[in-house]
Amino acid sequence: MKKALAPLRVTGRMDRLRALLDSAADGAAVDGLLVTTPANIRWLTGFSGSAGLLLVTRDRAVLATDGRYRTQSAEQVAAAGVGSDLDIAIGGVPAQREALVGVATALGRLGLEADNVSWSAQRRWTETFDGVALVPTSGTVEGLRLVKDGAEVARMERAAAIADEALAAVLPLLSAAADGDLTEARFAAALDDAMRRGGAEESAFETIVASGQNSAKPHARPGDRRIRRGDPVVVDFGAVYDGYRSDMTRTFCVGTAPSGELADVFAVVGEAQRTGVDAVAPGVAAGSVDRACREVIAAAGWAERFEHGTGHGVGLDIHEGPSVGPGSAAILDVGTVVTVEPGVYLPGTGGVRVEDTLVVTEDGSRPLTQFPKEVAV
Amino acid sequence: MKKALAPLRVTGRMDRLRALLDSAADGAAVDGLLVTTPANIRWLTGFSGSAGLLLVTRDRAVLATDGRYRTQSAEQVAAAGVGSDLDIAIGGVPAQREALVGVATALGRLGLEADNVSWSAQRRWTETFDGVALVPTSGTVEGLRLVKDGAEVARMERAAAIADEALAAVLPLLSAAADGDLTEARFAAALDDAMRRGGAEESAFETIVASGQNSAKPHARPGDRRIRRGDPVVVDFGAVYDGYRSDMTRTFCVGTAPSGELADVFAVVGEAQRTGVDAVAPGVAAGSVDRACREVIAAAGWAERFEHGTGHGVGLDIHEGPSVGPGSAAILDVGTVVTVEPGVYLPGTGGVRVEDTLVVTEDGSRPLTQFPKEVAV
């Protein structure tokens, strides 16, 4: 296992959020934001506990959490370089609310993360912050998270390397599967296990292993189906390293090169994916990356068989901004990390998807996932 | 692997929900409920897809989902016995909304599951269902889910048996760990893998393996710590079978019987857990089960070191009603499934937690988790 990376510093991020308060509520100003989305709290403070509330105003910041996280919260915000920038309130729910009310009561308008806060919670906060106008905000911190800094990219690169090495370690199982004694679920478990051995905190999402006819279902879950010679096998998986995720898909053909229509699907999806990757560059609209992939597949007559978007942002969440789908107007920036993952799914024949996670660079992009795109294994 | 169980039938559940509409909104009536919580949709219809919306009115029911689930939704509702009781609308978001609006437009008051619907979603639904009064509801379907039927209990029993067998299969790794070459993360991965081999769809939650000093942290995550002779090791895990979950904790002492204060902790927690299990019976308030456990631990002088509730309901969700905590007034019914999991956590010495998942029976309870409570392994 490689050396751990130096702690990730989050210094300055809360000030960048403060600079957005003037327009956070659909263009209108708020005096503070109650951050309730765990990944946003982690990104702003370094605190990774599952239960936390962060109130950021123009001149203060309070992180409230419960007694389980007393030591962890203090250590993490110190390691992240923001220990002196925020107060930590530890206690049960009433004590946490009291600490937040003490700060919020001076505010005129307070933003709530409306995509994350439940309607019930919004009603409770309205009572708790009596006299403060609560207004919905959406995507404020997420917008800041779109562009990754070097330390974040380094973590995603490490996650991707762990995933690459894990796949290399277990691929012989697939090559040896011609006798039908390997199920999808077994191969998925072996891959998950190899990632953990290699230093992953966990799998980035539920690993997909879809073989034979199952490969034609974009969202198949690994099951008891036995993998056999000639099967296409879609393997879509990723690792988590220090909170950051990787995402990669390879489709293999077991024990032989694909033939007939399946060979055409492999060729077209491979070309579509390369075309999509080539389209990724700073200043480009994400929708044009999607279009580039889609045109290759449409030219082969399978436009209707590419039934999902081309990709998505990745970071602390496995799906985050920007969307790389039809019409997505998001402009790619240096440091944005996105997937490019076209697929074609033909019932009766099988499905093929190929995916890399890429970081946008000055001169195009650099793949974080680097496993070879060999097909026959 | 044992034989698959017959498909679970959900017939009659939507009518039981309809009978609650007269008082679903804090005692006031609604004319229908928009069910957005995936486990509630599954419980009512058998559909297990990740994206679905279910509108239940007094005389109609519509399930809306997207094209990925066209076949699955039709097959699952048919297998569950409600295929003729509901219409399925397949399509993109606009088509799904249109199908729901077509039914909702005749309603005066429509309930939304306020604990599940985000504030953003509530605002969108308010626009979509223009002219319909949206009112918050909470816990309506969850209340029906409290009492499990025989087919549900059979699934949880199967999940628990898979977990028991998996632990038996990997426990020799722990016994052999005295030389320090087994990390917590490796043991957790081996256990997860054994559950999948044994027929689990997945682990019921992130498996906890907490050894040595880590055992004193109730929410420790498995890490790189090497397990050694004499360590207490808390193992908290479960399996999923046909959507239903099990939950069990055993604490072991590696290679030797515990000694000194640690031996006392094992003895007290063991007695507290047996006392809690004995307190489970129909007609009993969940809070009194918590009190029974807590008194044993308090008598030993460790009241402050039992820093969480005694248990929780289990079913399609790993944490569901009823809460088994201090003051919980929920009355246990025949068919309710709860955990009893007291623990004592002493920094410097270590922690011990013992947990079973129990179904309430006419004459008390029956444990679904049955792994022996041996300590020295």
Give the averaged pLDDT of chain A, no decimals: 95
Helix content of chain A: 25-40%
Give the end-to-end Cα distance of chain A, rounded to a whole number of Å.
26 Å
The low-confidence parts of chain A are none
How can the largest sheet of chain A be summarized?
Answer: 6 strands, mixed
Number of domains of chain A: 2
CATH C-level label of the largest domain in chain A? Alpha Beta
* Tally of separate helices of chain A: 10
Number of strands of chain A: 18
Shape of chain A: elongated
> Which second-level CATH architecture of the largest domain in chain A applies?
Alpha-Beta Complex
Radius of gyration of chain A: 23 Å
How would you summarize the topology of this molecule?
The structure is a homodimer of 377-residue chains.
Chain A: H1 13-18, E1 32-35, H2 38-45, E2 53-57, E3 61-65, H3 70-79, E4 87-90, H4 93-104, E5 109-113, H5 119-128, E6 133-137, H6 140-145, H7 150-175, H8 184-197, E7 208-211, E8 232-237, E9 240-241, E10 244-245, E11 248-253, H9 260-279, H10 286-299, E12 311-313, E13 320-324, E14 337-340, E15 343-346, E16 350-353, E17 356-361, E18 364-367
Parallel strand pairs in A: 1-5, 3-4, 5-6
Antiparallel strand pairs in A: 1-2, 2-3, 7-8, 8-11, 9-10, 12-13, 14-17, 15-16, 17-18
Helix pairs in contact in A: 7-8, 9-10
